[in-house]
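WARN retry 2 of 3 for item q-0093 after timeout on previous attempt; input resubmitted unchanged.
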Amino acid sequence: MVPCLLNAGHRVTVLDTFMYRQAALLDVCSHPRFSVVRGDARDERVIEPLAREADIVIPLAALVGAPLCDRDAIGTASTNRDAVVMLTRILSPAQRIVIPNTNSGYGIGKPGVPCTEDSPLNPISLYGRTKVEAEKAVLERGNSISLRLATVFGMAPRMRIDLLVNEFVYRAVKDRVVVLFEADFTRNYIHIRDVARAFMHAIDSFEAMKDQCYNVGLSDANLTKRQLCAVIQKYVPNFLTLEAPLGEDPDKRDYIVSNEKIERTGFKPAHSLDDGIQELIKGYTMLTNTCYGNV
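OK item q-0093 returned
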């Protein structure tokens, strides 16, 4: 997202603890409109002077994913929710917020019924609950947009191999086998570059989109885990899937999602699931470990 913002002419300040020792922003350090601060998004003494200079705030800081959040409940609540609530308090009404939420807030949907932005939220994990609570605070504050992101996939400078598509392709390339728990659970998916494009679209179309939430995913990719594996097998034919009769997915969400609302604003994803799988196969030829995971 940072290169996208810089290329569009914005001045960008990044605040990060760099807890994962990531170096994804080295290539933009030479850019005169890029600034970086090492600090914690929960620290008002750090946030307040930075926020004072911002026209748009994009609160990406979060502990992401059900397993990680369950391991650190206090850090999850203070980062995912409380830090965002603090922003709603210290920002002026004229300053804009574009926040990422997760569409896991829908929890378990009704079979065959797509979840729209008007569907009731029923988060079943601590991660989902804190993100839903943060979204509520931001939208109630006003002059804000929330993007409810599908499960992200695709190569990136600081990617997560433990996300579903990324992990299954990694297993296909490295192990040639994956064991499926609850193989008929359905999720929606979106390429990481389309996530960045969605944020740029929200910024560019802010007045028309503000004070609302939008699902962001591939409308042709509401797939079960079993169906996802079948797509991967087109490109890794010797990929074997086994289904476990016992055990369960730690992230129990199961739903299909409608992305029509954001599509009506003019946004369309540019990267298909097949595109992402093929690029992941190439990427995993280079990557030989899982240092880019959260779990």
